[in-house]
Design a protein that fits this description.
Layout lengths: L2 E7 L7 H11 L5 E5 L21 H11 L3 E5 L9 H10 L12 E7 L7 H13 L3 E10 L2 H4 L9 H22 L1
Parallel strand pairs: 1-2, 1-3, 3-4, 4-5
């Protein structure tokens, strides 16, 4: 049986290098890992407890929770915006954290990776995403990290799926994430 991994991409831009990184993870997922890139983060309203009540939860949030609930693990792709993670990714984590203590992310392994233009590859944003996912109840896989610097130049002519170093690192991360998910399910 395959481990179902839900990928959330913190960039909404169609040509985003983080989206391309997610595509590379899907393309090169090791045997036994099935990665789905969630489409629809742009449709999520900002988290608000007033609308997070039975019968009023927005359809986009219900869909995210449903897909996440059927997933065994999460792979978050975060660029860095002004030194931190993008609001769209934080908002998704907030929706997945509810109901408190029993959200769709609760108890499931989470890895955070990404690429950014700066010299550190978005490491601050990724650290913030790990912190938020952990506080939301996810089990952060600390050893599964990948921060790729200089995205604009590194991926100017090469898709991440064609970069051997990136593919190797992503495959190792997805393998670790799958192992953690398998252990959690046992």
């Amino acid at each position: 049986m395959s481990v179902r991994i839900l990928a959330l991409v913190g960039s909404l831009r169609a040509g985003s290098h983080n989206r391309q990184l997610a595509e590379a993870a899907v393309k090169h997922a090791p045997a036994g890992a099935d990665i789905e890139v969630f489409e629809g983060l742009a449709d999520l309203p900002f988290y608000n407890e007033d609308i997070d009540v039975e019968g009023s939860v927005p359809a986009a949030a219900l869909r995210l929770r449903e897909v996440a609930g059927g997933s065994d693990a999460f792979l978050l792709f975060s660029p860095e915006y002004n030194g931190t993670m993008p609001a769209v990714l934080k908002n998704a984590i907030d929706w997945l954290s509810r109901p408190f203590g029993a959200g769709a992310i609760s108890g499931k392994p989470v890895a955070v990776v990404g690429t950014a233009f700066g010299q550190y590859g978005g490491v601050w944003a990724q650290d913030e995403a790990r912190k938020a996912a952990g506080l939301a109840g996810g089990v952060v896989v600390e050893e599964a990290k990948l921060s790729i610097p200089a995205s604009l130049t590194r991926f100017a002519e090469t898709h991440p799926a064609d970069d051997t170093e990136v593919v190797t690192a992503l495959t190792e991360i997805v393998t670790r994430l799958s192992e953690k998910a398998t252990l959690a399910a046992a």
